[in-house]
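Q: My labmate handed me this sequence with no annotations at all. I'd like to see what the chain might look like in three dimensions before we decide whether it's worth expressing. Could you predict it?
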Amino acid sequence: MLQASEIQQRFTSIRRTIGEAERACESAQESSPQLRDYLHKMADEAKTADAIIRGSEQSRIVECIDRLEDMGDEAKRMSRSDDHISQKLESAVSKVHAELSSLKHQLH
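A: Here is what I predict for the chain of 108 residues:
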């Protein structure tokens, strides 16, 4: 099991990666409004989860990461079904998903 400090460090990296995906989506003119809105929703969820991760019990932390990983699955699905998405944006979304998935599997 990961230590609390490791979880916080990994989650800080995940929040940064979500921000990168948001910025990539904002700068990509051809990105879908649905993906843009979904990435904003993920960023809001991550902000909420950050407070829980910084001071809560393990079960609530796992719930937050599970929920965000599910959102990462959906964002990845959305990016893959968009024929006009830039490589930079698709890569950013895939990175978010991979980091969330890795943390989720280490917590279970």
